Amino acid sequence: MHPRTLKKFSALAAAALLALSAFAQDAAPPRPGEPPASSAAAAVTAASSPAAATPLARLPYTPVLDVTAMDRSADPCVDFFQYSCGGWQKNNPIPPDQARWDVYAKMEQDNRRVLWGILDRLSTQATGRTVPQQKIGDAFAACTNEALTQRLGAKPMKPELELIDGMKSKKDLPSVLAALQLNSGDDGLFFSFGSAQDYADSSRVIAFATQGGLGMPDRDYYLKTDAKSKELRDKYVLHVQHMFQLMGDSEADATAHAATVMSMETALAKGSMTLVDQRDPRKLFHPANERKLQALTPAFDWKSYLVGMGVSGNDRYNVSQPKFFQTLDFQLRMRTLEEVKTYLRWHVAHVSAPFLSKPFVDENFDYYRKTLRGVTEVAPLWQRCVVLVDNQIGEALGEEFVKENFSPELKAKTLHMTQQIQAAMESEIKNLDWMGPQTKAKALEKLHGMVNKIGYPDKWRDYSALEIKRDDLLGNVQRGDAFEARRQLAKIGKPVDHSEWGMTPPTVNAYYDGQMNDINFPAGVLQPPLFDSRLDDAPNYGNTGGTIGHELTHGFDDEGRQFDAKGNLRNWWTKKDADEFEKRTTCLTDQYGKYIVVDDVHINSKLTLGEDLADFGGLVLALIAWKAELVTHPAPASIDGFTPDQRFFIGMAQWACSNDRPEQLRLNAATNPHSPNKYRVNGLVANFKEFEQAFACKPGQPMAPVKRCQVW
Ligand SMILES: [Zn+2]
Prior knowledge:
The chain has about 700 residues and is of the alpha+beta class. Helices cover about 50% and strands about 5% of the residues.
């Protein structure tokens, strides 16, 4: 989680999306218009400029087991990641506009180039466009009209700044804040307000109020005392100051305003919950009626705020972090009207910057991409615009994408594999020696209740109410955010729509949603080199089989296991079985906590536990499923000199081939719930006796430790 890429408005709902790849889920999600994170091994420089890219008519092919990606001079028993991915690392330097570069990122980039071709055509086509085609074509046209964006400068955010300026007293804040929040889709304006399934009754949707209000990626950035954290804070204050200067403030005023912002955000950070605590859904569940909500924050008039949001008349809310809202209340009481205005101005400029003229884009890039992630170049405009359209009108774009790139055969194959993985889980649960019959029965009930969604939604989202203009980039972005916010809020009080997707079809990622109890595989992730129908089964089961198993296991990880078959937060474990489970997970937190991410920063293995568990379970299940497939489809004894077992493990490892910039690694260590890819391979195979046997490792070698962890 805290990937918050999708369902941006409802941070909590997004928090429930537990995805596979580290790529698509930076803690500081890409704003529309800003490409997702990537990273910077400073030593690695790009072979070709991203600006030189061209649109693609179709996706390129790379095999699921790529021998040229390997480094066969490495010993698989010493460093399996190097052995499987050493060649890839050498051949794939990080492009200057990316924070990291890996198999997923590369596929995502290829997908974007295909989408670029589609959007390029639809943005210029004069006649014969359907309504959805018109929306995405015009949105792309507005976004790529660089001359107009330059000419307008800061002007597009003038209406919002005037709204702030017009506040006569702090009593005006609730209605102004509602208007700004609707238009921004960001949790940076004091807090976030959206909808999600009730933890106590997943069949109904209620309103959620969630902590927010920060400009840096996480509360820890404000509070940690080490030298690097201090440096990042100093640079942040300078960045905020520069943004005020770009808005026309004098240097002296801008300096004072930046100090105000820092002081307010630091106070809010102190009242915020840590990412590790947020992994426990029980800590995030505090139902309240409107009276209770109001009592929590006497200085903030919820009534006028809710009217502004268009959601009055409900009487059930979840306040995810009550302490945060008390802190917010204190801030609102203590701060002057001018200070509140200053804070709002900064956040409006911050969310608008990627869609304004070059000075704003560059200043925003300089802190968020360069300082925090080590990226050296702003991504080309076409790329930022493809990401924007995918973020805001993604299902209309996805509809075009799947026409060319997702066949019924592919869907059938994936479904077959998924069913095998589910069968594997069933036998695994039945055979577990540490789980009692009572818990097993409930686990099976949950497994049988799980729904698979593959490729794309059955019914496409209707965007006809969304107004898109060819000459109003920031306006389109704001209307797009408001459209999504209202769509989320309109769910309150209605039955849950189980057909809905939280990722768009071209997305190279997958997720499990604990409250929907469903696993979701967009068309974008079911492509070579992850899923390759031209090659043998072994690497396919290692790779995509492992991914399916990974998502399925999220239903039973430290967080997912707390929800029952219907997605309700309800304990279905006996005390003894829960203790046994935790004992086994402690082995994993101890193991991963020893690995170093960058400099002296270790993996925060309590944050990564859910993902490490999912990787572990995923591989267990993929192995069982593959062995089952072998019964009817025997594997050739050897291909390219590798046994089937070896091909299974190499295929598994090659999803993770990557290069990382140290800045990005540091940011991930603080906020990403996934371990670095190297350890998602090496830490994983070290726990499998089957790996030791496949590569004839000697017991005691790094990838064949004598003591192993075993959960499933
Ligand atoms: Zn995951």
